[in-house]
Write a structure and sequence with these properties.
This protein is α/β, with parallel strands linked by helices and about 250 residues long. It has two domains: about 160 residues, 3-Layer(aba) Sandwich (Rossmann fold); about 80 residues. It is built from ten helices and six strands. It has a six-stranded parallel β-sheet, sandwiched between helices. α1 packs across α2 and α1 packs antiparallel against α4. The chain is globular, with a radius of gyration of 17 Å. Pfam families: Hydrolase. InterPro entries: CbbY-like, HAD-like_sf, HAD-SF_hydro_IA, HAD_sf, PGP-like_dom2.
Length: about 250
């Protein structure tokens, strides 16, 4: 394994417990779309989270259209994306909390100064920054090293597309193989894998009855070198990554 120089953090449900709050707002808008299109299906926030965890709202709506054979014009999609962003940011600014133990570990890593640190998310930049600001993690990251698949790229996309990871690596000036990514979702973990970035899986936000299944998915399907249940395990996990065989890059 090349020397690890850079730690790339997913944000939603990895650094900040944001997904439940976000999917409450997303469900309202998804149900509005389904009602307008004459489809009887209605989502709760947890149901939508189960179907589309790890995706940004644009990717979620594209999935929704495919799943229920409905159509939105580009203008309609853009309008809903903007409405969702405003609603989610408002919720995060009021209620977002850090993942348990994340603050201590990120603070310690920042103080040590050994690794470059960046945030690489599918979510819109304003949403990511609202999350980081609310929990006080913004001070740990350079503002220009907070990346969004929905906002930072010339063509907006969403994980599992690896574009945002490859863009972040290029901007920071590092090779994917010298980074480590921390991801909780299949889409995010797949994006890291497809970018050739060694992966630490994280299952802290999941319910006890989901942890075994999620751990297996992150390891077997997404190639996680190790999976942590709590941020207190991060240093041991990072050591295991640094001792692991090299990951093939794209």
């Amino acid at each position: 394994m090349p020397k690890i120089t850079t730690v790339l953090f997913d944000c939603d449900n990895t650094l900040v417990l944001s997904e439940v709050l976000a999917f409450e707002a997303c469900a309202d808008l998804a149900n509005e779309i389904l009602e307008k299109k004459g489809n009887p299906k209605r989502y709760t926030g947890p149901e939508l989270l189960k179907d589309f965890v790890g995706q940004n709202f644009r990717g979620m709506m594209v999935g929704l259209m495919g799943k229920f054979d409905i159509t939105l014009t580009d203008a309609e999609l853009d309008e809903y994306v903007e409405k969702e962003l405003q609603a989610v940011v408002k919720k995060l600014e009021a209620k977002a909390e850090p993942c348990i133990g994340a603050m201590d570990e990120v603070d310690a890593l920042h103080k040590e100064g050994k690794y470059k640190m960046a945030v690489v998310s599918s979510s819109a930049l304003s949403r990511v920054k609202a999350s980081l600001d609310k929990v006080g993690m913004d001070k740990f990251f350079r503002p220009d090293w907070v990346y969004s698949a929905a906002t930072s790229l010339e063509k907006p996309t969403s994980k599992p597309n690896p574009a945002v990871y490859l863009f972040a690596c290029k901007q920071i000036g590092v090779n994917p193989g010298e980074c480590v990514a921390i991801e909780d979702s299949k889409s995010g973990a797949t994006a890291a894998k497809n970018a050739g970035i060694p992966l630490i899986g994280y299952v802290g936000p999941y319910e006890d009855d989901e942890i075994e299944e999620k751990t297996k998915m992150l390891k077997e399907e997404c190639g996680a070198i190790v999976v942590m249940k709590h941020w207190s395990e991060f240093r041991d996990c990072l050591k295991k990554v640094e001792e692991a065989p090299a990951v093939s890059s794209v």
